[in-house]
Design goal:
Blueprint lengths: L1 H9 L3 H8 L1 E2 L5 E13 L2 E17 L6 E9 L3 E7 L17 H16 L6
Antiparallel strand pairs: 1-3, 2-3, 3-4, 4-5
Length: about 120
């Protein structure tokens, strides 16, 4: 949250974003971690070092509406990466999942999961 605040102070974007896309629901986030393994050689032999990335999905909702419009994706490791996705954009994703792309079905499932977390019901449109 501090990172978003800091970036907003440099160039205000939160109010315009919220008016167009909805307000973040800070208390209904989806969070996960992943372990990245890096192999390196040492005098004692090969070993693996792990780096943990934390990903936080912050849903946003238009005032007075009952469906998630999208989410902010914050990835935390040695730095902070922020981007966002809109739920309506799932059609732009490919059908097949490969290593570099998110499948449209996986993106749609993520949107449904966020609707379940925020509203405690299944919303399908």
């Amino acid at each position: 949250m501090n990172e978003i605040k800091k970036r907003n102070e440099r160039k205000e974007f939160v109010n315009k974003f919220a008016t167009q896309n909805g307000y973040p629901v800070w208390n209904k986030v989806l969070m996960g971690t992943s372990q990245k393994q890096y192999a390196h050689a040492s005098l004692a032999g090969n070993s693996l070092d792990g780096v943990t990335d934390t990903t936080i999905l912050i849903p946003f909702v238009m005032e007075g509406e009952f469906s998630v419009k999208g989410f902010i994706c914050a990835t935390l490791n040695d730095s902070v990466s922020l981007n966002y996705s809109l739920a309506k954009d799932y059609k732009a994703y490919e059908e097949k999942l490969d290593n570099s792309k998110t499948a449209s079905s996986a993106f749609a499932m993520l949107s449904m999961a966020l609707n379940k977390i925020v509203f405690n019901k299944n919303v399908i449109k």
